[in-house]
From TrEMBL:
This is Efflux transporter, RND family, MFP subunit. Residues 161-232 form the CusB-like beta-barrel domain. One of its GO terms (cellular component) is efflux pump complex. InterPro entries: Beta-barrel_RND_2 (IPR058792), MdtA-like_BSH (IPR058625), RND_pump_MFP (IPR006143), YknX-like_C (IPR058637). Residues 240-308 form the YknX-like C-terminal permuted SH3-like domain.
Length: 311
């Protein structure tokens, strides 16, 4: 029993000695001084000077801005004539085909007005003018009336392109407005055109206005019924200040940008914007020609930030 007590006493002394050694090591080594030194290093680094922010810039210059309206049109013959039957009945013959050239008084077909128990002489339908067949809505054997055209004849002298524009664009389009047309059939060619007519009323269902353009096609490549892509050239401003839209920042409704002054510091400038064309925005006030505008990195700026311009 006495021997067991002695072993416990010796173990207790060993634990006490270990604790004393550890305490001495903490006092001598003091590991917390590394945390303090590290904190001091961060502060020292911050106190070395202002932090530079890398940006990309451009010089503000005068440019031309051209606003456009893009849409799809339809090539039509404004001088086309619809041909009607003089009687109701059955279309017994149809002597022409779509796209065929016909002469004045040429027979287009015949209509039999006979009914059950009553026989009438067939009515002959003739072309009132020379031209090209643009439309044949009925086939032989169809019942026709005097209210529906049997055929449409186009003179194909001056083709027009009609298209609808949205109500918001009406104020920017007028007689003489220039346009460019492109067709899938002629990928390498652009056709010039200009507005020659505007509808006096809007389409109440679509809130659009129909306009007509005169097409310049001296070689006669364009055919009635084709569908071109149309670019209307509306407002144009020459030699105005314009910057990339992406360089603008907003605080509420106030637009502003950052420029770089002669000391390499960011300078905040409130600006007023004008016409917007694609990714360009007109600046009416707030900038002058030659200002160094920050176009990348401006969201990191504050007034007086030191900047490093990337080439």
């Amino acid at each position: 029993m006495k021997q067991h007590h002695s072993k416990k006493h010796i173990a207790g002394l060993i634990v006490l000695i270990v604790l004393i050694i550890l305490a001495t090591a903490l006092v001598v080594i003091n590991p917390f001084q590394y945390l303090k030194n590290n904190k001091a290093t961060v502060v020292a680094t911050t106190d070395e000077g202002p932090v530079e922010v890398s940006v990309r810039v451009m010089d503000v210059q005068l440019v031309d801005l051209q606003n456009t309206i893009v849409g799809n049109g339809n090539v039509v013959d404004p001088s086309s004539i619809d041909v009607y039957s003089e009687v109701n009945g059955t279309l017994t013959t149809l002597s022409v085909s779509l796209g065929q050239r016909v002469e004045k008084d040429q027979v287009l077909g015949t209509v039999d007005p006979s009914r059950a128990g009553v026989t009438y002489k067939q009515s002959v339908i003739k072309a009132p003018v020379a031209g090209t067949i643009l439309l044949l809505p009925f086939v032989q054997g169809s019942n026709v009336s005097m209210q529906a055209p049997i055929a449409r004849i186009g003179l194909l002298e001056d083709l027009e392109v009609v298209l609808d524009i949205a109500e918001r664009h009406i104020g920017t389009v007028g007689i003489g407005t220039k346009a460019e047309l492109s067709f899938k059939a002629f990928d390498d060619q652009v056709f010039q055109a200009e507005v020659i007519r505007l509808s006096p009323v809007l389409n109440p269902a679509t809130r659009t206005l129909e306009i007509a353009l005169k097409l310049q096609d001296p070689e006669g490549k364009v055919k009635s019924g084709m569908f071109p892509s149309v670019v209307l050239f509306t407002e144009r401003l020459e030699q105005v200040l314009a910057i990339p839209r992406s360089s603008l920042l907003y605080l509420g409704n106030q637009a502003y940008v950052y420029t770089v002054d002669s000391n390499g510091l960011a300078q905040k400038k409130n600006v007023e914007v004008g016409m917007q064309v694609d990714d360009k925005v007109q600046i009416t006030t707030g900038l002058v020609v030659g200002d160094t505008l920050i176009v990348q990195g401006q969201s990191l700026m504050t007034e007086g930030t030191l900047v490093r311009i990337l080439q």
